[in-house]
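Exercise 7. Predict the joint structure of the components listed below.
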Amino acid sequence: MTGSADLKPHLARSHVMDLMRQMLRIRRFEEKCIELYATERIRGFLHVYIGEEAVAVGALPTLTPDDAVVATYREHGQALIRGVPMNAIMAEMYGKQEGCSGGRGGSMHIFDVAHRFYGGNAIVGGGLPLAVGMALADKMCNRRRVTACFFGDGAVAEGEFHESLNLAAVWKLPILFVCENNLYAMGTALELTESETDLHLKAQSYRISSVAVDGMDVVAVEAAARRATAAIRAGEGPQFLECRTYRFRAHSAFDPELYRSKTEVEEWKKRGPIERFGAWAEANAILHPTDFAALEQEVAAEIEAAVAFAESGNWEPVETLTRGVYAEVAP
Amino acid sequence: MTRPPVETRIRTSYREAIRAAIFEAMLEDERVFLMGEDVGRYGGCYAVSKGLLAEFGPERIRDTPLSESAFVGAGIGAAIVGMRPIVEIMTVNFSLLALDQIVNNAATLLHMSGGQISVPLVIRMATGAGRQVAAQHSHSLEGWYAHIPGLKVLAPATLEDARGMLGTALRDPNPVLIFEHVLLYNMEGEIAADAGAVEIGKAAIRRPGRDVTLIAYGGTLHKTLLAAEILAKEGIDAEVVDLRTLRPLDTATLLESIGRTHHAVVVDEGWRSGSLSAEVAARLAEEGFWSLDAPIGRVCSVEVPIPYPRHLEEAALPQPARIVAAAQAVMRR
Ligand SMILES: Cc1ncc(C[n+]2csc(CCOP(=O)(O)OP(=O)(O)O)c2C)c(N)n1
Ligand SMILES: [Mg+2]
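Solution:
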């Protein structure tokens, strides 16, 4: 890997503005979802990405539209940044027909193949083998595409994680593993369940080149992701990013948060990706208070429109209940 | 003559009843321990084990990593050398990651070893739909496990069974799987203050009736009892049988019931094809054919992965109205 200048993110005003906009889109979207969950518009399990925005916002723009993304049940952020329209995501959260998965999946199963967004997997670790297969197909067909696979620290304990890393390494596949290490798998702290908590070292033991980055720092994530995707495109095989981050909210709406202290959460909030990047941009006179206000307004309008879209969407008629079990056509 | 003492009743929930059973087992037998994801600090994903960590400590209330295959296998290993593990898997969908250990080890070690190795292990897990958690968290796969010789499979549907089946399962020298329907955890009611171990292996008649036998288990039992009330208003007196144990099946109780009612409907939250309901219906046809006045009816989940929206989820699952209609159909009313 090289450290050449064009691999560093350019921190021009427009880029700073864009990073800020994207992080705000996720943050405010998730806040709205929590509200909509309280009023039972959104049901089932809801896992929000608040606190972790810098990971998706830093990593995903280094991909091209041809590349693919595989994510988990905490995937609204990745879907938004990948370009899945907010309207379609919100309608999916409601379970409306106009949702990106036709309403069948809900919060945990956002899919949009047009944006090469392959879910939305609610089995921990379940996405990793899929991503390996997608990368394998690309390699076999000589397609120069990257598959980015997001997963949590909890997934690292599953056999599928280890089997997938090994396959990706022995077959030298064009895959970017992005581990979102937020220190907890539901209520279980990483240090209680992993003998090696420095997760990126696990990738190294499979001879996959890997780095750990501050996942609360959008610029650091972007720089690392840019290097990693460049290496993949240069034919260097799989790359692994461990993004050290933190979930500010409960695991899901059912979580009483008995396993961590309020002070711990508050400490991490001080390092919030939006808060910190915003303060930096303002201190360096790149963004001004009016910019933040304008961004907030723009994001609020997008969310309002998405809610209106979801509200006015339609429930699928019960008559088509058994649709979507067998395919008519192969990809 | 002295009158029998008045039984003291206590209010409890399905969740608390299971917790009380774990608590009692842990006190009675030092070899018993609980392990699984988030059973300790989090208090259990369905809050069943809440408070147990403080009582028994992390050695016996063990939080595991997300490693279903390894910790289920470890439960088997500990059991074969003398421990009495209770392994909790969050939901049956996740148990698929441990299917190899359950089917290829737990169920076969006794046989393969010529009877040398028995596996006194209890595996508990949630099953079923109804919470809009979509296609990777909602399935009822207990019927698959009931296919496997060497396993015993239980489905407590009442507070008494939630309280009593675990202790009996722990005393069994075989691997026993307990399926707890997610919609039952909040069910409340009264049970005897001294409720304890219950017999396993026998079905129970939950509502006697003369006209038709409705056979259910787990989460569908209560929908079936509701259906029986509706049928009663229409002059059909339904008997409701709770299977309780899915393997081995208590065919005798079922045959005895249809011997009286001559009509049967089987209710199962699993899908119809290759399901437990198919096995039950086949046994009734094989052994009870001459008792039956009509073909056996079935009410199962529609053959589709469970969808997220409420109306579609409800439509996919057995509901009282469908059970009523099936009973009417076999009664030709
Ligand atoms: C195979 C499997 N086991 C258990 C679960 C239940 N579960 C859902 S999320 C979760 C925690 C996962 O933690 P992590 O991978 O760190 O992701 P995070 O939620 O922190 O983003 C658990 C245990 C599941 N969905 N799949
Ligand atoms: Mg985590």
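Discussion. Chain B has two domains: 10-192, 204-330.
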